[in-house]
Amino acid sequence: MEKIKIKKMMDIIPEGKSVLVCGLPGIGNVGRITVDYMVDKLKMEKVLEIYSTHFPAQVFVDREGKAHLNRNTLFYKKLNKGKSLFVFTGDFQGNTPEGQYDLSWQLLEIAREMNVSTIYTLGGYGVGKLVDTPRILGAFTSLEMKENLIKNGVKFPEGEPGGGIVGSNGLIVGLAYKFFHLEAACLMGETSGYFPDPKAALEILKALSKIIGFRISLEELVERCKNLSELTEKMQSEMVDKEKKEDLGYFQ
Amino acid sequence: MEKIKIKKMMDIIPEGKSVLVCGLPGIGNVGRITVDYMVDKLKMEKVLEIYSTHFPAQVFVDREGKAHLNRNTLFYKKLNKGKSLFVFTGDFQGNTPEGQYDLSWQLLEIAREMNVSTIYTLGGYGVGKLVDTPRILGAFTSLEMKENLIKNGVKFPEGEPGGGIVGSNGLIVGLAYKFFHLEAACLMGETSGYFPDPKAALEILKALSKIIGFRISLEELVERCKNLSELTEKMQSEMVDKEKKEDLGYFQ
Amino acid sequence: MEKIKIKKMMDIIPEGKSVLVCGLPGIGNVGRITVDYMVDKLKMEKVLEIYSTHFPAQVFVDREGKAHLNRNTLFYKKLNKGKSLFVFTGDFQGNTPEGQYDLSWQLLEIAREMNVSTIYTLGGYGVGKLVDTPRILGAFTSLEMKENLIKNGVKFPEGEPGGGIVGSNGLIVGLAYKFFHLEAACLMGETSGYFPDPKAALEILKALSKIIGFRISLEELVERCKNLSELTEKMQSEMVDKEKKEDLGYFQ
Amino acid sequence: MEKIKIKKMMDIIPEGKSVLVCGLPGIGNVGRITVDYMVDKLKMEKVLEIYSTHFPAQVFVDREGKAHLNRNTLFYKKLNKGKSLFVFTGDFQGNTPEGQYDLSWQLLEIAREMNVSTIYTLGGYGVGKLVDTPRILGAFTSLEMKENLIKNGVKFPEGEPGGGIVGSNGLIVGLAYKFFHLEAACLMGETSGYFPDPKAALEILKALSKIIGFRISLEELVERCKNLSELTEKMQSEMVDKEKKEDLGYFQ
């Protein structure tokens, strides 16, 4: 089997320059939540699917019992003023470093074909504790991009993220710049990393819609954040109660 | 060495549509027990063997001292009414995800050559406890298949199997549907997963023989199930006795 | 870099049928000790070296400070009556299953070129305790070979070796038979597996020289076995002394 | 993606024979510190960069927030009398043995193109304790080199380094000699291995500048060694103080 197989659903090559947003699974699933939300709210269309021997050897089974091969998917939406938006998401990033390089490279070849000129990869920045209003951290490849990101609220605190950016989010940005002459940046939303985190996704989406220039209803995502906040508050107060009781028991 | 090598024993391309049943080693060895039993009882003929660098680097040595390379094997049997049956079994599934993809793809190319139109992969569904009458769970790729499976006693409980289907059983079904336009389903027999389990194999075989339409004597398999039941009952009663004695000792 | 690179030192294609003996590193280093001894005592000539990305990424540094790449080497010796003997040994078997398949296959292609008709792989059979007179266990591919091996003292006890033969010793035999139509057998000398074991090598060499038909002085190997026996006896009696003293201390 | 990609910055093929010095990351980071210092002090020019799927799948993010793909880099400097000097350093050695072989081979093909006739690889020799004046140990491929190295203070103590040379430092030397007919040696500076070690780098640089014949200001490196010595002495005396106090506490 070829290492990467592409299944096209739609023949589309936008005339003007287009933008690509990538949100694969990762810390707090921030990137994937953001992009899944965009696909849903912007009613984006499926362009193609990527299958690969670099993915885990398994199928998902949905609630009806239907089996689905692991895959990544590219979606498309025509924006105002001749601009085009592509988003990329999916089930996995690739099992090995080599697989992640291969899959990132393949995506960039597709992006070139689709006249993409700018790429944003989205991810979480794990901080190991609950965050009220997550910052959005950035990593850039050209200074013009950096200035524009800062204007839209993205932060570049010195020394963060300390360990670099691991996985596809980093590779896509690095390869895009070095080998495809595309502008690329990575946006990382602060997250505890303990659970799928809509809050970081919300903050990323606020910044991203201004940066790229598209309108999207955030209502449902705000609702999910509220539900999550209630849940975590409830859990915390229950833990405090429990500790208090245990403390009393201890001192009696 | 090429990654996969095929050794043909027999030149056969059935005229009508044929069915392929796969039973490779896995949880409770359910798939392999079922298919080995079919090969034996239906007196099936060897069509070809698959050798691969994706298998562990070792040979089996049989009781006489003869060395055998790891391999998978395809068998054939002409059924009534021009129908043909192929089954596939063997020693291993492939060491790595890439190997499992490669081997599954290779099998599907062979299946296409052999005019196979429908594939069933067989496996165990590990539940971690002894089961009296194992359910057969299914995963399908087309709704027509699902209906036919339900009619023959296969269950599709919502949310099961939760973690998807890992390994060749899943890949063969997923790849068959996406890239070979073949109908495919996976049948999983409930099993404790603690030992090779003829009971799950028996239930699968009852369903499968009705679904595909072949007759097979189940007597010997029923016998093996009875022997296993006696053995597990004896072990359980011995454990209860031992616990009782220990309890007595404890309270004296 | 190509995965396997061959460096030829000598152009030789024997006219008659020749025999190949393989002794790569493994349990008790039995195979390698045997073949290294043959190379030395029979004054065999270097035919070629094999280098490979399947070997560990390191060089050995000898006592003078010279660096040596990991390699396997083929040696040659003309025997009486037009017979030719090749032996193969080296530093490693290959890092991965795929590497071991590749390297075994490559050796068999060389063997075919060299008119080899029969192959013996040599190894240790780890039994986890000191053995006075190691048995030689065999695994065969054709019944004629088995009979000849038995005549020369090789044993085929039912169910041994239980776990098959892991690594090149097994693969070379299995691939030789299935894909190269060569006769092949594996000879395994019983060994504790705790240290490099000349005793198992000695017993293998006694049998092998009769099976293939060559003369070799065993004196030096016998000497090494005696030295090892004295050493292990001394260690054992010291351990007994130490235990006695400790026992006394314990009871005082 | 191809496994190795080269990005050229400069077209240079020196007329005379040139020398290549390699200092990749490793024990005490000795090789990399040495070569980075040479690049800086000798004002060397970037010739090319190597990117590879054999490197970890991540990007570094610098203090400004700019993302950098993992890479190795070749630098160039014209020395006196028509001699040319190349140095090679970078972020990683390759994730796997196969990757390390591939990357070493690629470098040697570049070296051949650049008329390189002699190669020195630099590394640390971990001894697990602080060393006042690190020895420089060597491993050679031709006896002429050895004599020249000894004359310049390199040691060849029998049996050191015991475990051979692991990674690129060994492979480059071994492959250069066996397959590219280049002279090659490895110089290893003794180091504790506990932290990046400028002392070993300093001693290597003293020897290397004499061996190859170039002048370099060592002032700044001497300064870094002094700073490190002060730091480690301070830490040691603090530990002694702490132990004394604990001892007092223990006996009171």
Task: Please describe what this structure looks like.
Four copies of one chain form a homotetramer. Chain A has 252 residues and is of the alpha/beta class. Chain A has two domains: 4-217, Rossmann fold (3-Layer(aba) Sandwich), CATH 3.40.50.10900; 218-252. In chain A, 39% of the residues lie in helices and 26% in strands. Chain A is built from six helices and eleven strands. The first copy, chain A, has helices at residues 30-41, 97-113, 143-151, 168-179, 198-213, 219-251; strands at residues 4-8, 18-23, 45-52, 58-61, 67-69, 72-78, 84-90, 116-126, 136-139, 165-166, 183-191. Chain A has an eight-stranded mixed sheet with strand order 1-3-6-7-2-8-11-9, with helices on both faces. In chain A, strand 6 (72-78) and strand 7 (84-90) form a beta hairpin. In chain A, helix 1 (30-41) packs across helix 5 (198-213) and helix 2 crosses helix 4. Chain A is globular. The N and C termini of chain A lie far apart (69 Å). The model of chain A has no long low-confidence stretch (mean pLDDT 93). The A-D interface holds A 94, 97-98, 100-102, 104-106, 138-141, 146, 156, 158-159, 161, 163-168, 170-171, 173-175, 177-179, 184, 186 and D 1, 3, 5, 7, 51, 53-61, 63-69, 95.
Fold topology:
The structure is a homotetramer of 252-residue chains.
Chain A: E1 4-8, E2 18-23, H1 30-41, E3 45-52, E4 58-61, E5 67-69, E6 72-78, E7 84-90, H2 97-113, E8 116-126, E9 136-139, H3 143-151, E10 165-166, H4 168-179, E11 183-191, H5 198-213, H6 219-251
Parallel strand pairs in A: 2-7, 2-8, 8-11
Antiparallel strand pairs in A: 1-3, 3-6, 4-5, 6-7, 9-11
